């Protein structure tokens, strides 16, 4: 197999290895990413459940604290404002998020705590404030505590508000007194939820779903409800909130492609190593079978080709016949002594090139010694005059002197050949016969 064909085969093998390697890496990476995605999603689901529990606990606590004020709302006493101030202060201190409370008998605010920051709310008639009246009226009609908001406050800012409907005849709840409102600091509520820090790479949306006809956005990114991954329900005394979780567009690659990061450089190194070994193999094999000076095949290569051809001939699987020609340069030592070894090297290189140019592609010329060459020539037609063919080769390669350093050096060679015959036992005998033929001519 020639060097070009081996190079092509190695390149094809390299391409196949590369393709297989890429497919394997992508398959492993896909499996790895699926596992990572599964683990991350499970963790996100667990964190979302923790957020739901934490948010629900905080809201229920604020609802409970606000509802305790209903026990004294209907009582008339002389120092009412003083008592309400103390109790309201205690309620706010126990809560981490309530910032103020308001009492509205007949749905008109007549008491707020703390007064200084919320004095503007005194006298507010809820029926004249559509934004707030809707939920207050719903609390009255349903006789249930509910959470409004976030809404704009008269005193400024936005907040979530706990609406506690109060009745004179608890627990029958037929005689309406009014409503108590507990204002929840909107920002503080969500800032103190420790579970929130687990969703920096996600879009999260909290929606008030208590009204089946209208869902109010409370917190997060509204788009999270589109193609959401997970959902949790915050249960309230009246209605519920929905928490929706989806991946942020900025966190599509929320995990590193560790397999690719490691595998592709390793594959690249393997390909480079494989090609380097292949190149070294081809180069070393070429050197092992070719003469360093003339770059034509050497004795080892010719014997390999001859052994194969001889075996095929013995099996009758070749057309025609073949010969071995032994060529020796006449007086080559004299040329080295007279013109120098550089001239001798030039003659060997030019002569080997001339011989090669006189052969066909499937024939072989090999340098087997200092000034000796062997030719392996195939003949498909037995009627060809082999003797004339050899003579033509000898005449063609010697008819012109070889130019070296401005001097023309005439060349003469002696040749001998042997034609394959079934009677020859092995190819070694053919080599011996060709060698004898050449030396017999030298003797004359």
Structural shape:
rod-shaped
Amino-to-carboxy terminus distance: 41 Å
Task: Pick out the low-confidence regions.
Answer: none
Strand order of the largest sheet: 2-1-5-4-3
Number of beta strands: 15
Structural class: alpha+beta
Proportion of residues in β-strands: 15-25%
Order of helices and strands: HHHEEHHEEEHEEEEHHEHHEEHEEEH
Biggest sheet layout: 5 strands, antiparallel
What is the mean pLDDT?
Answer: 86
Give the SSE layout.
Layout: H1 3-67, H2 70-73, H3 80-94, E1 98-105, E2 108-113, H4 115-118, H5 130-142, E3 146-152, E4 158-167, E5 176-185, H6 186-191, E6 202-208, E7 216-220, E8 230-235, E9 240-247, H7 258-289, H8 299-314, E10 321-329, H9 332-339, H10 341-357, E11 364-367, E12 372-379, H11 386-398, E13 402-404, E14 407-409, E15 413-419, H12 427-442
Antiparallel strand pairs: 1-2, 1-5, 3-4, 4-5, 6-7, 6-9, 8-9, 10-12, 10-15, 11-12, 13-14
Helix pairs in contact: 1-7, 9-10
Provide a quick synopsis of the model.
The chain is α+β, with helices and mostly antiparallel strands and 444 residues long.
Kindly describe this structure.
There is one protein chain. The chain has 444 residues and is of the alpha+beta class. The protein is 47% helix and 23% strand. The chain is built from 12 helices and 15 strands. The protein has helices spanning 3-67, 70-73, 80-94, 115-118, 130-142, 186-191, 258-289, 299-314, 332-339, 341-357, 386-398, 427-442; strands at residues 98-105, 108-113, 146-152, 158-167, 176-185, 202-208, 216-220, 230-235, 240-247, 321-329, 364-367, 372-379, 402-404, 407-409, 413-419. The strands form 4 sheets. A 5-stranded antiparallel β-sheet has the order 2-1-5-4-3, with helices on both faces. It has a 4-stranded antiparallel β-sheet with strand order 7-6-9-8, with helices on one face. A hairpin with a 7-residue loop joins strand 6 (202-208) and strand 7 (216-220). Helix 1 (3-67) runs antiparallel to helix 7 (258-289) and helix 9 crosses helix 10 (341-357). The longest helix is centred in the N-terminal third of the chain and has 65 residues, at 3-67. The two termini are 41 Å apart.
